[in-house]
Amino acid sequence: MTATVDPIAFEVLKHRLWQINDEQSAAIKTISASPIVVEGNDFNTGLFTAGGEVVIAGIGSVVHVTTMGDTLRSIIRRAGRIRDGDVFLTNDPFMGALHQNDVVMASPVFVDGETFMWIGNVLHHPDVGGIDEGSFCINARTIYQDPPRYFLKIVDEGEPSPEVEHTFVTNSRLPDMVLLDLGAQIGAIERARRRIDTLLAEQGAATVRAVMEGAIDTAEAQIRAAIADLPEGSWTGNAWMDGDRVGSDGIHRVALRLSKEGETLHFDFTGSSPQVDAAVNSTYPATVGGAAVPLFSFLCQGDIDWNEGLRRCMRVTAPEGTVVNARFPAPVSISTVGFRWLVTVATAEAVARMFASSERFRDRVCPSWNSSSNCNNVFATTPDGRRVGALLSDHRGSGGGARSFADGFDHAGTITSFASSMGNVEGTEWKLPVLYVYRRCIPDSGGAGMYRGGLTAEIALVPHGTDALVLKSTNTAGTDQTNAHGIAGGYPGAGSQTSVVRSARVRELIRSGAAPCSPGEFGGEIVHLASKDEAVLGPDDALVFYPAGGGGYGDPLDRDPDSVAADAAEGQVSRDRARGQYGVALAADGSVDRAETGALRDAMRAARGEGKTEAGWAPGTTIESPGAHRIGEHLESVACDGGRTLRCTRCGHRLAGGDGRAILRRRPLGAAGPLRALRWGGDSPNFALEEIICPGCATLHEVREIRIDESIEREART
Amino acid sequence: MASGPLSLGVDTGGTFTDIVQIDAGGAVTVDKAFSTPSAPEDGAIESLAGLARNTQRPVDAVLGATARFAHGTTVSTNALIQRSGARVGLIATRGFEDTLVIGRGPVGRVGGLPHAKAMDFLHTEPPAPLVSRRLVRGVGERVTAEGEILAPLDREEAGEAVRALVEAGAESLAVCLLWSFLVPDHEETIRQVAAGIAPGLPVFLSSEIAPRIGEYERMVTTAVAAHVGPATTRYIGKLQDRLADDGLRHPIQVMTAAGGTTLPDGAARAAVSVVNSGPVGGLVAARHLGRALGIGNVITADMGGTSFDVGLISRGAIEHTGTPFLDQGLPVLTRSARIDTLGAGGGSIAVSDGFRLRVGPESAGADPGPAAYGRGGEYPTVTDALVVLGIVDPGRFFGGRYRLDPGLAEAAIERHVARPLSLDAADAAAGIVEVVNGRMSDLIRKVTIETGNDPREFALFAYGGACGAHCADLAMRLGIGRVIVPYGAAVFSALGIALSDIVYAHTLSAPVGLDDEDAARRVARESLDALAGRAEADLAASGFMPGDAAIRYSVEMRYRGQMNEITLDLPEGGAEPGLADRLRRAFRSVYEQRYGASAVRASAGLEIVSLGVEASVVADIPAFAERPSPEAGPGPARRRRIHRRGAAPLDAEIHDFDTLDAGAAIAGPAVIERDMTTIWVPPAALATVDRLGNIEIAPEGRR
User: Does A626 score more than 90 pLDDT?
Assistant: First the structure.
């Protein structure tokens, strides 16, 4: 029996459901003791149909939206008897959880003896066991070294099960925190259940069901209408991982071709690397969740609800046995900051290209945002014998990519959650045996462009009150290539690096009132860690790390010189870079020397034009709609002679297709700025920058990071 | 004729400056003047002149008879919003100069924004910086989490920092060093140094302004104080001088967001709390009126042109919050009355994309205003919907000050809502009101549930120009049995300001685990003593004896590791033996009430995070006098058709409030028209007028 609801009642009741679900989020944020939940926003809550479709998702991390639905459906499929008052728990990535830390709880709401709907939530627990502290298992080679995977009934017909709770908690290195988190999850469900019961009594089940189904249908219809407005075509995205586990520097790739198929989008990850014997693999549901992120964050804009509607508009092809669809028993405990993260990075690039091809959506172009999750778990035993540990929150000081109309956000947080923030230094020092040396904004860490990428922050700390601080570093990528893509001629932002300084004089310097402000002043030996690495920090060692900056938008020589001067005055861009990368000469008082700037920019354009032209540049955008389509800041795709060419809109030069030619200039990664390929002194043997320059007017149309190995490079270009 | 001593409350708002006088007999007299944003004291003085004319006494006689003059000002708020306060120089611990710039990541950019705006990731432009990066200096000092001085402050280096900032144009100095709330010595040294170098430079120390854990919020709070403090002090001084010239014999009292007033000498320190204090006056008035009516549990609903504000009074106490956002990206560590806001008011715009009907948060404001104003407003608003439904009389809106054009209202609704959703205009108008009522009732549910309360155990006090048309419907949706539209609704904030107590509140973070009971007791004892000392100093500075004030002690606690605290009262203010057990029991009880038994974790350790002392000098206010009987009796009966969605129209009686005497009972459907507001009495409801002039609505009173 389906009731119909008019648009007014629908709006009123849907908001009521939203509010009920938001109460779940409020409960979790209040009760949880995990900084990653309360500050990092790494959780979400949902209301679901009887079949497990997400009706309403909360304001937590959007990466959990589609996976909550997948997990719910797995629970329904595999559960024995489902009774009123049951609460199920699972953290199994092969059932839909992103990785084992993400514990999903769900409980049915019964009406007339049948499951009417589900209430659920997911929360990142700080440690759920496994070979490495914090449960991002950088040493795991198989899933049996990963944390255990559970599928439990933690509340049985309203009766909490102390045995189940004990089993779960006892496997954690941080049992007190995990216990509070379990309480937060169950408490949230109970709060929502009371309010759902009231709503059902008031409105009747048929009406509520109609609203729930209508909510998904409406979001789906809104998204289909948006997709229908895009031009026909396909867009590529890329991301690389440099190092997959402790002791392995293997380089692997996520490859994506995103195509419009009528009113839906097809995400094809064919060409991604084979799965690895390291916990960075992504399961299929995690890959779907990762691909959905840029659309939730950049397309929905607060107008389109976060629910299953988007999923209905996505087709995802991910070949089994690859890093984006790992086959059991591959370890997967790092997935969410491993290949799931890189799926989001590659998708963000493809989606930015897609929006750049549409007049309507060009204001949503953003090529990268927090490209690497530079996660550092630190654990220690305090003098009074307590084990403490946590994932440091500082990686959320990362930069956002530039937009088509303005600079990227400095210290933007994550693309997966608008509220994913850094903890206070004091809050962290109160909880953990560490002393921060600095937390500072890094100049030149945003990718250069007509609009500059957002800046990132660098953090330094030393052990404090412990002789042995265990570090487990899970840095998605970025110690080599950055993945901090720019677009339309913008350069990539800073990479992502964790370093340890051994035998440093930091403590002594702080005591003398001369606290150092960069690792070079620490007076010890700097060891740049691989992207998955571990260390024990002694009293004289320091930890230094920075997450990725944001990529730029457009040719840096098109940036307003006054904006460059303002950046220099505020310390966001160095004078060297202002000159060398933006072609802006600054007078002694910091103002723009216009004459010299003009000459400088002319000379830089002339130097660009000296390169040899080549045929065969394949941009990441392929348009199939008839007619001419603008696809970039100064680039359009034009149909001609049955094929298509790419034309510079400034000078009309044909850059690709037909007899089109462009200048392809290769430079070391460090040409994009400092803190790129730091481990390699800015010049990686594995990757390089490739600049695509217009032979006609010397406009920089694209900058990308390419794999130097020729056979792979061919592939990366398409 | 009024006789002294008088209490005066003056509330400067965006459009009007309201004044309320309460005389010794409890009689309330009100007046309004236009606000004068460039020199707000002019509007305040003008409102006073109006009141004097009204009461047929010269201004100096009114002021001479005034025992308390309390003032709510927007000077601090405006200085902050427009960033027009003092140019702030900031001194931080070396290595942490970028704390404001980094802003804890997105907290500094999207914190405090409504969710719907924050969800639009790519269009969340950061707010203008409070302190320029060029005006920040680091000093090489360091205190640890244990309160140990790892690196002493070098006075010379501090002096160089101060000199550099002054040379760079700093007009005010904020100092925020790591862990300074535990060890304030370095900040105090910097103040001494600064006094030697730049004697007139106002200095704000984080260890005084907000001695609480969390350097970002503490730094924001200190920088806000340094930015708006000087302007606030200057303004208060100017107003004080003019009032003294006119015969006022007491220092004026300044309203704060904490729900009390402070005296001028404390205004600089309290400047952060002066920001956004206006709406809190309404809560104080509601608490007072609640006491008079014997109602301890009150939900306040204030709906104006652009926003809907909800506050809560539980068992006679105003609900507070610890870290309010003053504005986008600016969380501050000041204890403030909790007010939850929704972008829903009479001017909220309704629009549909063919999929959904959205009302607010965009507002047509006063200009162009609702479509019915005829000033070019393209989009329909909630007010337009009420006009089309027949609830608002286009000829009598806002006491007849605005003439509304119902044709324009209907056309706008037709174009932007009815047609996209395939409804007729009247149904669309009803839909707009239903949607906005749904949102508002959801907000009230949220506020009550998050504080562990049930809305059905509360009365709803409705004020603000737009609330009367919605309040009965909200109460019905929430199961609330009693709605009060106060007699003083049009000047409710000013009334509350006139009624406010003088409050000095101090808090201090002193994190300590409860496991080591002796340590916990010692820390609590020392902290409370220090705080009580500060409150006593405040009292003495304002000429009060310790015995003049009521003192309340509180403690903020959490399970170890949590990031949110629960505030508990410490009845005797003591940190005596048995403290730990008492705190454990009290914590458990409040925790269970708020989050449910399933959230209680008896085995988890507890920690004290902060302690608080609040000293209040209670205002001596007489009981409200009865409202005089109206001079005119009811005129000829008027009736109007009120449209409903999916049902036959109603034939409603229209009443003029000014003709209703105490005891009048009006059965719905009916409309009561007052000077500044329109009150809708739905079919099942019964409205009565009490002796104080309040309208009480029982939503289901006819059943």
Answer: no
